[in-house]
What we know:
Layout: E1 5-15, H1 21-34, E2 40-45, E3 51-57, E4 60-67, E5 72-79, H2 85-96, E6 100-110, H3 116-136
Antiparallel strand pairs: 1-5, 1-6, 2-3, 3-4, 4-5
Helix pairs in contact: 1-2
Amino acid sequence: xxxxxxxxxxxxxxxxxALDGQEVEDRAAKLAAAWPLGGGLRRHRIEDGGVTxxxxxxxxxxxLHAFPDEARLTVVAFTVGAVSAAAFxxxxxxxxxxxxYDLRRSRYGHFFPREQALLERVLLGERFxxxxxxxxxxx
Length: 139
């Protein structure tokens, strides 16, 4: 059984995103390089035309859910190491040219499954939650 890791979770739900899908993906790779994770990228195209990018490593994870039809982006970062939340948020603001967003920081326990089919279900669930938060937010 995989051990549950405890750490810090940072969630950013952004509105009025002015970037297209490829720009989001290019900048996501730069963000992941600055986030001390280890590991690599898993990319999942979604039927709604959006994309979910998952950077999964031994020290944490970074998820980006892009909703191009709604001009929204959700970034969910989790780390078990010591990372400056303020520096991370500033880097997200800079890379994705964010203006309006909601920010949450919490202590959290989480792990991602290794089995591909189960991982895809978890990522779709994370995407569903991001979309639900976006729908509940007044623009």
